[in-house]
Specification:
Number of strands of chain A: 0
Structural class of chain A: mainly alpha
CATH superfamily of the largest domain in chain B: P-loop containing nucleotide triphosphate hydrolases
Number of strands of chain B: 10
Largest sheet of chain A: none
CATH topology of the largest domain in chain B: Rossmann fold
Helix content of chain A: over 70%
Order of helices and strands of chain B: EEEHEEHEHHHEHEHEEHH
Number of helices of chain B: 9
CATH class of the largest domain in chain B: Alpha Beta
Radius of gyration of chain B: 18 Å
Oligomer: heterodimer
Order of helices and strands of chain A: HHHHHHHHHH
Strand content of chain B: 15-25%
Helix content of chain B: 25-40%
Distance between the termini of chain B: 20 Å
CATH architecture of the largest domain in chain B: 3-Layer(aba) Sandwich
Shape of chain B: globular
Largest interface: A-B, 25 and 30 residues
Strand content of chain A: under 5%
Structural class of chain B: alpha/beta
Chain lengths: 283, 262
């Protein structure tokens, strides 16, 4: 983000740091410094978000770059999400079987696995996996571009970097997370069935029939679409961290790490809020 | 120390072309933290003129170019491009002005995920949408040929030398046929032969395109070769401005020391 862009939008010069770590502060004033650091970070994130939103809704639109990002975020994350989903399905099957056997409710195992996967485990695991892969990738890529003046070169070429770099990546994350979640859910249910069949043979058709018995779109759609919010968080934080990097190679590493840590943290926190919201609205 | 105010022949001297300035920096101040980089910087450049800005490292030469292209904002003063004050312009408003400018970064700043040809085509893809694919490719071929890179279209920036990267950067800067060309240390880090080649290239481009150019450099030899006028900076402002002979005849101690060490 150039000084001009940030200053023109709010009259507030950008800060030097793009993360919330405070250094060189005495112990007495450390809590205040941390608090003001948080406010500073959130304030700058807000400014950045406004810049991106304004750029995203005004032409010219960067469709080609958006397509490229959809591929990068979506198809290249698919194998990892599928693997993670499958692992979760297997783990759930083993863990839930143990509990269900104790209560004599093994007939409910398919439902327990399916509902657990589609309502919570699939979305949150997809969010965290994508946060790690895509968040780090975007953060590192944009940070590297920032420290090598490539973002300045884009701006000097009269192309809006918020539109070209940030808006496309954020939109790609928003659009791809729900689709990746569906893929993750599918793999989770499939592996759940496989793990179940190895212990107590059951046909896939019977497993699906039992697992989805009584399920409606209300059970599936809201948890899946909440991952669009996860995508917004991941894309926004990763782009913000990357485009405000300073400090060479160390800065790039810090941007990548902070992108993953902060986006994962905010995905988990957002999940708490969204789950409550879904329960209130749809129950 | 004597300043430009003690040398009436150079301050505000009319550029060779005698036309209205295309770029006018008026009493600009810029501070980073507690460090005042520019302290009342004033200079003007006209069409078809090349001004070389010289000075020690850290005297604000690159900051000056970044202010003119709008990547930084002055704390006070004004910067006029073709008479329009660029202070306070939005990103998109500044975009219209930047389309008439070309900028060569010190490190070339090539997009490392794009090939050489794609780097040069970048401004054309975004601002010349009326061009067909063939026309754009032809224009890229023309630009790369102009900078002496006929056969390197498909190479990545990491596959070419520093000198070649500068040439690609120059080709990209010229893609939209700018009125104003800003060059930040075009020969920095290059060997003497490559530096000479870049200087010759810049001279050739100046003759053909008649742009207003500002070249920031610490290389006095390069400045003498390519510039109509030289401006020497010290402590955030222009100490002396004029031809190389004017600098040689100056009685200002700093100027003498600079020339002696160069």
């Amino acid at each position: 983000m150039s000084d001009r862009a940030a200053t023109a939008s709010t009259g507030i010069p950008p800060t030097q740091a793009s993360n919330i770590t405070v250094r060189g502060v005495s112990p007495e004033t450390y809590p205040i410094a941390v608090f003001t650091g948080f406010l500073d970070w959130f304030g700058n994130l807000g400014i950045f978000s406004w810049q991106v939103l304004r750029a995203a809704v005004t032409p010219p639109y960067e469709f080609r770059e958006l397509i490229r990002q959809l591929d990068d975020v979506g198809s290249k994350s698919l194998p990892l999400v599928a693997l993670a989903g499958a692992a979760i399905g297997a783990v759930l099957s083993m863990e839930v079987r143990s509990s269900m056997t104790r209560f004599g409710a093994t007939s409910m195992l398919p439902s327990a696995i399916v509902y657990s996967v589609i309502q919570e485990m699939g979305p949150i695991i997809t969010g965290l996996v994508v946060s790690g892969r895509v968040g780090a990738g975007i953060g590192a890529e944009l940070a590297s571009m920032k420290v090598t003046e490539q973002i300045d070169a884009i701006e000097a070429s009269a192309v809006n970097p918020y539109r070209l770099l940030a808006a496309t990546r954020i939109l790609a994350c928003i659009l791809m997370l729900p689709l990746l979640t569906v893929a993750g859910d599918a793999c989770g249910v499939l592996m759940g069935w496989l793990a179940q069949t190895l212990v107590q043979p059951i046909s896939f058709h019977q497993f699906i029939d039992a697992g989805f018995r009584g399920a409606t779109l209300k059970d599936f759609l809201p948890p899946t679409f909440k991952t669009a919010v996860f995508g917004l968080i991941i894309g926004l934080i990763a782009c913000f961290q990357g485009m405000r990097t300073r400090g060479g190679a160390e800065g790039v590493g810090r941007a990548a790490t902070n992108s993953v840590v902060l986006s994962s943290l905010f995905v988990i926190l957002a999940d708490v809020v969204l789950v409550k919201l879904i329960l209130v609205v749809f129950s | 120390m004597a300043t430009i105010h003690d040398i009436p022949m150079t301050q505000g001297a009319a550029p060779p072309s005698g036309g209205a300035p295309v770029v006018a920096v008026e009493d600009v101040q810029k501070t980073f933290g507690i460090h005042k980089v520019l302290n009342g910087m004033t200079l003007r450049v006209s069409r078809a003129e090349t001004l070389a800005v010289l000075g020690r490292s850290g005297t604000g030469k690159s900051v000056l170019l970044r202010l003119i292209i709008g990547l930084e904002s002055p704390d006070s003063g004004s910067i006029l491009i073709n008479g329009q004050n660029i202070a306070g312009l939005t990103l998109d408003g500044m975009g219209e002005i930047r389309k008439r400018m070309g900028f060569l970064f010190q490190s070339a700043a090539l997009y490392d995920s794009l090939t050489v040809a794609e780097n040069v085509a970048f401004p054309l893809e975004h601002h010349r949408k009326e061009m067909s694919r063939t026309e754009r490719d032809d224009r890229v071929d023309e630009l790369l040929a102009e900078v002496g890179l006929h056969d390197d279209h498909r190479k990545m920036p990491s596959d070419i030398s520093g000198g070649m990267q500068k040439r690609v950067g120059l080709a990209r800067a010229l893609a939209l046929e700018p009125e104003i060309l800003l060059l930040d240390e075009p020969t920095a880090g290059l060997d003497p032969i490559s530096s000479g080649e870049i200087d010759e290239l810049i001279l050739k481009l100046q003759r053909e395109h008649q742009m207003a150019s500002i070249v920031v450099t610490h290389d006095l030899h390069s400045a003498k070769t390519i510039a109509n006028r030289l401006a020497l900076l010290d402590q955030g402002k222009v100490v002396i401005e004029g031809s190389f002979e004017d600098l040689q005849q100056s009685e200002i101690e700093f100027v003498k020391e600079f020339l002696k060490q160069s």
